[in-house]
Amino acid sequence: MIEYVIPNNPDDRILDRISTVLDAGKVVVLPTDTNWVFVASIKKSQGAERLYRIKGLDRHKHLTVLCNSISQASHYAVISNAQYRLIRPKLPGPFTFIFNPTSHLPRVLKSYKRDKEIGIRVPQSTLISRLIEAHQSPLVSTSLTLDLLLHNLAPEFCKELGGVEEIYSYLIEEAFSNQVEVVVDSEGTELSGNSTVVDFSNQEEGPQIIRQGSGTF
What is the share, in percent, of the chain residues with pLDDT greater than 90? Predict the structure, then answer.
């Protein structure tokens, strides 16, 4: 099912319906400020498990926690005062920051015996911020790439379209109809591309840029 929303003023009734879907441990796809992402509730282990299955991820690969503030992020990530001063001017924005996790991180997000890192994002997105507010908790996420979309679309379907070069909501619904409950289409949302990933998990070395994306750190 596709739900259409206004990017800067999403309907509260739609957000409440999506929150109910997330509370049931199901997966939703929506755009952030950088890319399309699969999201699930951080409160439901079955939702995170579904994200791992959809992406075919090794359980040693971390999912990213979407928050609407640094304060909310600090419940799950160990953020020092010095780190806070560095990231505060950059958020919300196209960055993924990697920290050591706190004891509040749900077990399903812990990588077996390597519970040492967690990725945090505070997107510049009214839709994400309002959904987190409606859901009353952060979301766990993993990106939807064009390669993954093409892998899940029938070759005959792609051929009929004359090829697929961009991600659209109707293509997501076609590719993941049995794995995703809702696709949220905020028409007009501009995506900047991959976020810049900065690793703060090593206190001695200081911040390390792991991937240069659309954000300048």
Answer: 59
Per the DSSP assignment, residues forming a β-bridge with 118 are: 99
pTM of the prediction? 0.90
CATH numbers and ranges of domains, the chain: 2-211 (3.90.870.10)
Q: What is the tens place of the pLDDT at every residue in 65-74?
A: 999 999 999 9
Structure-derived torsion over alpha carbons of residues 100, 111, 210, 76, reported in degrees to the nearest 10: -30
Q: In the prediction, which pLDDT does 112 show?
A: 44
Chain centroid offset of residue 47 CA: 13
Buried b / exposed e along 190-200 (16+ C-beta atoms within 10 A): eeeebbbbbbb
Q: How far apart are CA 27 and CA 206, in angstroms?
A: 35
Handedness of CA 2, 173, 185, 62 (dihedral sign): positive
Report residue 114's pLDDT band, with 50, 70 and 90 as the boundaries. low
